[in-house]
Design brief:
- There is one protein chain.
- By secondary structure, the protein is mainly β.
- The chain has 3 domains: about 5-125, Immunoglobulin-like; about 125-230, Immunoglobulins (Immunoglobulin-like, Sandwich), CATH 2.60.40; about 235-355, Immunoglobulin-like (Sandwich), CATH 2.60.40.
- The protein is about 0% helix and about 45% strand.
- It is built from 1 helix and 28 strands.
- It has one helix spanning about 135; strands at about 5-10, 25-30, 50, 55-60, 70-75, 80-90, 90-95, 100-110, 115-125, 125-130, 150-155, 160-165, 170, 175-180, 185-190, 200-205, 210-215, 220-230, 235-240, 255-260, 265-270, 275, 280-285, 290, 300-305, 310-315, 320-325, 350-355.
- The strands form 5 sheets. Strands 11, 14, 17, 18, 19, 20, 21, 24 and 27 form a 9-stranded mixed sheet that branches. Strands 1-5-8-9-3 form a 5-stranded mixed sheet, with no helix packed on it. Strands 10, 12, 13, 15 and 16 form a 5-stranded antiparallel sheet that branches.
- The longest helix has 5 residues, at about 135.
- It is flat.
Length: about 375
Amino acid sequence: MRRALSVITAPMLLAGACGPVENHVWLTDDQDGITINLDQDNELATPYVRGAEVNIRVHNDQGLEDYSGWMVVSNDPDVFRVDELDIDEDLYARCVAEAVGTAQLSVIDKNDELKTSAIIEVAFPDELEVLAHGPQVVDAPELQDSGSVIEILVGGEATFEIRYYDVGRRLSGNGVLDAEALDGIELGFEATELFEDEEWLRVTPYEVGSYSLPLLVDGDYLEDFQFLAVDDSQVEQLYYVAESTAGRDVGDDMDILALALDADAVPIYGVPFTWFDQDGSSLGEGDILNYHYDPWATREVTVVFGDMELSLVINASDEPYVGSSNYVGCQAAGGGAGLGIAGLAFAMLLVRRRCQPMAPGSRVL
């Protein structure tokens, strides 16, 4: 049986006449952020997760801007469909990963010459990875590997990145996540596309208990996201993880993540921290403190939750500002090398009950 082709032709543009030029063409997508492709080979983050929208960019090495009459063709639009072409210096194909399988994507110029082609694979995940965003901000993957069920504070919002895998391979693409509604929790979904396509799940529980949230991918059930909703009585101590200052320059942005831990040192997410500057003025609410690195300056800041507080000294002369790991807009993934739980090298840690006197000698600046 003959397969239908998905063929989209670029609109005709007015352009001056020019002679034939040998033009090398290659493809990239919007899945892996900003890359420099010196080899000028196709660089596509296939396989794509089923249901994802994918933008394919057609490049050329001659500075060609007139793509009049060019076509981007899928030999199996039931698997990978080309919906629309846009021209903005380069040629962009707006595509959809429709179904599990493979398809060939071809670029054909106005003279019906094949310029390049690529095999596209679409897959459905067999497992998910759920990563709390806070540890990603400070590059602390060890916090994701506690082996315990994720804990979220009742009434607090926690944000998690969802990654898709098929037979151990990470699948690219986003915008395909959903969940079945459960009583007692509020959900939010967000897809970001700044440096790479990422999928985010926001969870706010309103009742203490154990939850199994059925997660759907492109409308089909995949697996449950299990978490515990706990109240503030489970918070035993405050903690922080900071980006390493090694190799950093004056003025570099640095992040610190505040954490609440339970009796087993398991992080509790969604905790509303308040930060204070060294003069006692409030810096704001959130779990992320951002400051500009200055190795010749020190500044004491304090983070508070309930009757607990944690004080630390940072290398900053300017007033820091407070953000939240629930914000995933410009910073969709974490920054530099993190210190982790075992090695907080540059700042002093002090945890105490708020308003409780400190023991002599308990503080070194």
